[in-house]
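quick one, three chains, predict together pls
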Amino acid sequence: MNGFDISNLFLSIGQVWTEWLLQLGLSAGWVSFVNKLAGAVLVTAFAVGTVVFTIVGERKLIGRIQDRLGPNRVGPFGLLQTVPDVLKLLTKEIITPANADKVLYSIAPMLAVASVILIWGVVPFANGVMGVDLDIGALYFVAVSSFGTLAILLAGWSSNNKYALVSAFRVVAQLISYEVPLVLSLLVPVLLAGTMSMNGIVQAQAQGWFVILAPISMLIFFISSTAEVGRSPFDLLEADSEIVAGYNIEYSGMRFAMFFLGEWIHAFTICGLTATLFFGGWRGPFVDQVPALGVIYFLVKMFAIYFVHIWIRTTMPRLRIDHLLDFNWKFLVPLSLVNLIVMSLAARLTGMPRADAALGELLPYWGVLLGVNVVLAAVTLYVLGVVGSRIRRRQEAAREPEPAVTGP
Amino acid sequence: MTYAVFILFTLMALCGGVLVVTQRNLVRAATALVLSLFGVAGLYVLLEAGFLAAVQVLVYIGAIAILIIFAIMLTRRMVQGDESGLNRQWGWALVSAVVMFALFCYVVVKAWPLALGAVSAPAVPADSTEALGLALLDWEQYVLPFEIASVLLLSAMVGAVVIAREKHDS
Amino acid sequence: MIPLSWYVLVSAALFCIGLFGVLARRNAVAILMAVELMLNAVNVNLVAFWRYGEPQAMAGQVFALIVFTVAAAEAAVGLALFIAIYRSRDTVAVEEIDLMKG
């Protein structure tokens, strides 16, 4: 056994574990099988375990933002609030409506959780510390996300409830539409990194985080993935004042809890993905010497972005469905298309910097890409202003036709 | 191990397929279609075509299956029909399908026998996804099919919008 | 390694299941689903022959990708047609769409 390298803690633990298994007399094939199984359990445990903390944290934070205390009864500062909540959900009766499609009704919650946990398989926690470094990681993320859409669609249909069905129609309208700008903005980091592997994308950000090189893509990605989670201001799928609770109206007990769990995991998952794709993932000071630090950097970035996510959630009112779709098809999709074209031209013009490029060589590269983004943002704002004022003028003209002539 | 995985995905693909053509409830049939397509994606992974597997899940399950379920919901009165999902000629259809399968088996096993034992195949290059991308954009290889495919998609998109649009004659 | 003929037989079985569906189903959407099964069967075949034939050349995968595109286009146009028919005839059962029969 070579020395236990504390600086690369997680890979070292993996090595020790593998050697221990080999000493037990397992064959190499079984060791790799057990390792993969253990990895899957670990990743799932991370995803589910984090939710326990984010639920309390998010509720406290929402409370503060809305000028109230949040949970404060169970345990010190209300930190143990999740425990009785989970117990309550676990012990509640699982109800299946008489006219529901029983098979699909019970499959849907499992699909909802599975689709988001599967994403964690390709998210790198530190250099090489990840479920599996697929060479198509980014595409894999988009592919498994589609199971989430399917889950909500099936839940809405199989409940045999009109509100749930309305919610299912909204799912198709919202989630499918917002997948378009999501994928188009995801292509920009892939383009800049020259690889679809998540770890490769993080490694490529040694020459500058993509949030500096492609801020517009970052914004589009963040907005459209927030819409994919289906949280305020995009919570039309379960808008309680319009369609009661949408697709999960009939669900109770553990099945409801699974939808809930899926949504909460999804919420910080997209933050983790934003951190990975645009904020350098596990990159940070001294990470090349001490790779284990990468996990801390990654988690800090993820939760910082998660804070912004909660902030948006508590501050923004819900959009109307036609505004939601207009915003996507008339603004995000054209913008992300133009952005993709412009960014690929710019990246082609500047060319990729070498891996060991000095700061002086990097500055023009950063400058050109950032400049292109700023110009694009300015043009977008200008076009928005012109179009907006034209629409406003037309609306005002429609509202008051001809002022009635009164008197001489 | 590989055999177990192969059999698992094959069962998913085939059982899903059988359910698709026999289920009377169309949404269930569409869900079975998802199962079947997922099994096929698994077969792609076994064949070391990871990119195609991901595209299969993305395009078929993420787009086509959801579109089909959506269309079933829109034409909903058909779903709860009491009549059988099969038409009068289903017996002949079964016969022709079985005959077809027997013919395929004859061709594969007897006429042009493919090696039935474990065959060896050349290794897949490590960067096969990159090679696929380069081949698609290579002027001397597949750039024309690639462009035709995109034109096809565009025209299908426009056509679908025009056909499905409600006509407001005013 | 799994023999090539296994993949080919799976593909053949899937194709025949799809064929049965196309011939025997009443609902047009169900027929469309069966067509998708048949296209998938073809794709399994293409990818299997790519893998066991010449994995350096990308012809098999490119062909499979084109089939994906065609399937997507077909599903979009087909479903649009069914919705249009449903609006005017109130059914998507293929036996009842016989306007041209005279």
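Chain B has a mean pLDDT of 81.
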